[in-house]
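INTERNAL TRANSFER SHEET
From: sequence group
To: structure group
Subject: Lycopene cyclase domain-containing protein

Please process the attached sequence and return the structure record in the designated field. Keep the field labels unchanged so the import script can parse them.
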Amino acid sequence: MTYLQFHLVFLLPPLILLLLWARPRPPRLWAYLLMPLIAFLYTTPWDNYLVWREVWGYPEGRVLFRIGYVPFEEYLFFLLQPLLTGALLLRLAGEPPSPGPGLARVVGGGIWLLVDALGVLLLALGGPYLYLGLILAYFVPIFVLQWAFGGDLLWAWRGPLLLGVLLPTLYLWFADFWAITREGIWWISEAYTLGVKAWGLPLEEMAFFLFTNLAIVQGLLLAWHPEALKRLR
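Return from structure group:
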């Protein structure tokens, strides 16, 4: 199986089904369509660095061509994952709830700030801590900002938040496991990972899909909440 075939099997069919089920429409449509572009722009430099450092890579013959260090199919993944996760969230997120306790903004932002500090420490240690450190140091600042800005809104919307993150993450864990262990579409360096695995999937890969989905879901929920728009104004 090639990387493009992976998309055709694991990403496009569920995306099409979810879109038919969700039938996205304004006013939430604009944020749903904008999120893939944001994910693309934010993830591109990070991903190029990881491939350049050989934290992960792709065997010859499994990708069409590369732009920079990253295969074309990887850029497609940056667009398809937010569309897939967001399409499910369109069905899970009902009417915006009333804001929760304001303390959630302080506590949530503070907790994520500590996690970010851990990521910077792991990044400084390097070696087997590098991949996990890169994930935490690069993606957790997003969570710090999201919770400091609208933690009360995210807490009030915690049901859709949890399900909206959990379900696509479990599915992408399975797809990633299949791509690595069964098809060999990409590989993960043992030199830059802790060697901790669950069901054959590296801990770092599990963290990557969890954190990227968390960024997508929290970003969309904030964009869809009228109170968040008032705060921006």
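Handover comment: The chain has one domain: 3-17+27-97+104-226. DSSP finds eight helices and six strands in the chain.
Transfer complete.
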